[in-house]
Amino acid sequence: MSPAQVNIIKQTALTVGADCASHREVITGNIEKSDAILGGSYSQIQKIAEKLKFQPFSLSSLSDKLISEIEPHKSKTKLAGIVNVTPDSFSDGGKFFEPHNAIRHALQLIDDGADILDIGAESTRPYSKSVDADEQIKRLSPVLKELKGISIPISVDTRNSEVAEFALNNGASIINDVSGFDFDPKIVDVIAKFNAGVIIQHSKGEPENMQDNPFYTDVVEEVFLNLLKKVEYAVSKGISDIIADIGIGFGKTKENNFELLNRIEEFYSLNLPIMAGVSRKSLLGLSDSVDNNLKDTFTLAISYPLILKGVDYLRVHNVKLHRQLLDLAN
Predict the structure, then answer these.
(1) Which of its termini does the chain have fewer beta carbons within 10 Å around, N or C?
(2) What is the pTM of this model?
């Protein structure tokens, strides 16, 4: 901005107890333009924005931008319904392993209000073993064939480039890579080739070892910077349809998980849709033997504040309950 604009913003900020940092020569006018860092509480910035509406030098347009930045994240939360075509997933292992059961479950999730179907043929729960590409394709093939042409996008949960290519050739339009390109670096080129969407998730380590004493100095900062780096890499490859997943439960302690959830709004500055997956996970504090109905109830308790914070996507097992919760929240 011009020195005149910055000086007005600075003086306006001071009147409400906030501040504005700028180039040192702004006060003298010996500089043509300067960036500015406006710091204050939400209420202070709201007051500044209201005052700027009546200032010259096009500051009224800046007022509108400020208000849009500090308003709550307004995008309506969408639901990614989980279909595990696996014998060993942590919550419903084997229940939908047979193709006809997986297909029926997928169609039910659509009826229940899913916005995306997320289909996986490899469990990535803690201490699980990887599943080779041929086996994943064998599991996915009849399901994708039957679901081709459904009304909502299909995401395939895989870390493998060969599986990703098969999926994108057979009706999927999104790849959900829980490793964030770390497991198979070729997967990013496959996604780019098909001009497909991608869910880039943060994880630390691999499922076989990710829960062996994970450590972070600042979990939010480290996850944010890791996702930022991977998003920039994906964009450099020509990928534009990107969702960022904070990776709850993937190489994180219970405390790490809740820190990420409590501060999830900090990830909105990635300027991408943000996904969180808490459904039936161990952070709920329930044993594996507990009935899924109780796990779903606990999941709703964690999902509700995320909805209020405007998280873009929740990856869930029980779509019907979450759709009812969204209707209530709205």
Answers:
(1) C
(2) 0.79
